[in-house]
Each structure stands twice: as C-alpha cells, then as structure tokens.
Amino acid sequence: MIDGLLILLLFQFLGEVLIHLTGLPLPAPVVGMILLLFALMLGAPGMDKVSEAAGALIRHITLLIFPLGVGIVLQWHRYQDNALALAVSVVFGTLIALVLVTLLLKVLLRRSSHGGGGGDSHHG
Q: Carries keyword Chloroplast (predicted)?
C-alpha cells in the first residue's frame, strides 16, 4: 500500500511541477489527477498498487473531510461574504464532476467489456 500512496503523491508532485512551469490557472492536484488518469488509461506499470491505496483512502475519507468541516465552521464569516460565488461554483463543479465521472465510467466499462477485464466480464 505504501507503493500506491507514493505513486499518488508522485502524480500530485508532477501536477505541482507542471503548474509551476506553465503557470496554468488550475489546482495542481487536479492536474496530477488528470496525469494519473492518463497513466491508468495507458496501463502504466505499477498502477495496480494505486487501487489498493485509493481504496484505503476512501475507507477513511471521513477522517480526511473532518478537518475541512472544522475549517468551514471557523471561517464561516468568509463564506457568508462570498456565498453566491461559492454556491454557483459548488453547483457547477458538482455537475461537471458528475458528467466527467459518468463519461469515465462509460469508457472504463466499454474497455472492460472488450477484453480488458480478464475474459468473462461481459457487461450488457
């Protein structure tokens, strides 16, 4: 699992480097996730270890979200000042994420049903 965590951190680092070198107005972790997505789609070696690490992180996601909730409560006055902008960005961000996850799932399911899933994974 340590290998998978290191791979995840490596892609976040690559995102930081790419943002630093190009000055793109994107969050570096998002760029790192996009790079990780390409690596997963291309079947880069060692990507099977990422699944185990990601699963462990997802199992404990409540521990990762808890500090965020505390920070929101402590900075509530700032959120009230920018409530409209935050609401719009949350709604549109959620919609964009849902569309992207749906498209990714369709691509992965199509790829899996064409022989990438180990033989008998034929999904309707």
A: no
In terms of Cα–Cα distance, which of 41, 8, 39 is closest to 112? 41
End-to-end alpha carbon distance in the chain: 33
Helices (H), the chain: 2-22, 28-42, 48-59, 61-74, 76-81, 83-111
Q: Classify residue 105 by burial, with Cβ atoms within 10 Å: 0-12, 13-18, 19+.
A: exposed
As given in the structure block, the two tokens for residue 37 are 């997505």
The distance from CA 63 to its chain's CA centroid, rounded to whole angstroms, is 17
Q: Mind listing the pLDDT tens digit for each residue in 14-60? A: 999 999 999 989 899 999 999 999 998 898 887 888 888 888 888 98
Nearest to 15 by CA among 1, 29, 5: 29
pLDDT tens digits for 81-109?
999 999 999 999 999 999 999 999 999 99
* pTM for the model: 0.55
Distance CA 9, CA 59 (A): 18
